[in-house]
């Protein structure tokens, strides 16, 4: 099995496929408040979603800098996510013990589409000794570089000085990005992806992270 082993975060360590939409809604509201913007209901609804659609247009109409809005929204979303984790509103999967065990005998990393600030928080929160942690930059460009783009996986590999390895994720875009970065890939089954076919290009399919300790 090639090493290092890099792990996706949402749906692999953190329960559920991603950040709750309310976290982004609250973050957008906080950012708009801080910028003293007064959006229409439509503008607010668009800006609350976790995507870039209409962000530039709405910010221009509101007379605020889209880059500044986005950076604030990302920061508040990180705070909201960390609060939810600390409060136990979002849990961790039981089988992440396996990553901790692997970290004792090989190089492990965390590479996520989630915000870098949250990736750092989670790495610390779970207490696993990841040698590299990479999440998205809190910028508009950082958002565009998410998987299925291989960018953040490639940056993590660069940091480790490695050109091979295994990427473990719970979605098709993880397999696409891992492959594009030149890695083998493992598609991890969780309750939220039971209905998906195994991605044809995935090297492995895992029923649990525990299965990795037998393979590596
Ligand atoms: Mg995921």
UniProtKB/TrEMBL annotation:
Keywords: Hydrolase. It comes from the Archaea. One of its GO terms (biological process) is DNA repair. Gene3D superfamilies: HAD superfamily/HAD-like. SUPFAM superfamilies: HAD-like (SSF56784). It holds the Pfam family Hydrolase. GO terms for molecular function: phosphoglycolate phosphatase activity. The keyword Cell membrane does not apply. Belongs to the HAD-like hydrolase superfamily. NCBIfam families: HAD-SF-IA-v1 (TIGR01549). This is HAD family hydrolase. It comes from Haloterrigena salifodinae.
